[in-house]
Specification:
Length: 248
């Protein structure tokens, strides 16, 4: 009899033990379901906010505008935290370019002295800069405000890139300043590459790259002047133009 009672007690204990386990598992499962539901709601809300922000920014952009959009859930943006929205200044006249360039800080381009007769201004643009500091700033503000999706407009004075194009019949000349992402010491003089030096595969895939190019750097910026294949301007003549192509 005692043995039977002991067995019953043990069986009851085992039943309670497994019952407790089952109860714990049920509680954990319920909590997990709630957590998953909450995450799904948050993800849906973030996705909606992200789509709304993109739609707003697509309508906001005016010439020269720069917005950076931050999204905490990188899965919504192809694995990236940020999206850059920008609209460059574009110019059809050299005078309009000069008026905008006068408002900027840092070096700008100018029509070189000695540019051969016949070359006329065709087009130009000034592009906003993209810096890691801007990204850090917008993320910090989003975090402080508890925002999972957040964007900010940045006012800038130093451009990310300037491009000018001149043409003389079938010949053309393009000039560019771009902000160097890897600051360093200025290079030793000029580097020159002819259009003939491009390999056949590159020429086939990217014919727009095939140009005669003179380039140099001051450490913070990279400069280049390019001409179309067959352009009669020589390396020495391009160097002469480069001496007066940058206004600091």
């Amino acid at each position: 009899m005692k043995k039977a009672m002991k067995a019953a007690v043990v069986a009851a204990g085992i039943a309670m033990l497994f019952g407790s386990v089952n109860m714990t598992e049920a509680a954990q499962s319920k909590a997990a379901n709630k957590s998953a539901q909450a995450a799904a709601k948050t993800s849906a809300a973030d996705k909606k906010a992200f789509e709304v922000a993109k739609a707003e920014l697509s309508k906001k952009l005016a010439p020269g505008d720069l917005y950076i959009l931050y999204v905490r859930d990188k899965a919504l943006n192809g694995g990236e935290e940020f999206m850059n929205y920008m609209n460059m200044f574009q110019f059809k006249t050299y005078e309009d370019y000069l008026n905008q360039a006068a408002k900027l800080k840092g070096p700008t381009l100018t029509k070189p002295e000695g540019l051969p007769d016949g070359y006329k201004f065709v087009k130009g643009n000034i592009q906003p800069p993209f810096t890691k500091q801007y990204q850090k700033e917008v993320k910090a503000e989003a975090t402080a405000k508890g925002k999972s999706v957040y964007y900010k407009k940045f006012d800038w004075k130093e451009p990310g890139e300037i491009n000018l194009a001149f043409a003389n019949g079938k010949d053309n000349l393009q000039m560019q300043i771009s902000y160097s992402l890897s600051k360093g010491k200025s290079n030793d003089g000029y580097s020159y590459r002819t259009a003939d030096e491009f390999d056949a595969e590159t020429a086939k895939k990217h014919p727009e790259w095939v140009r005669n190019m003179l380039s140099w750097s001051d450490g913070d910026h990279v400069y280049n002047i390019t001409t179309n294949p067959g352009n009669p301007l020589t390396k020495e003549e391009l160097i002469k133009l480069a001496e007066t192509a940058v206004k600091k």
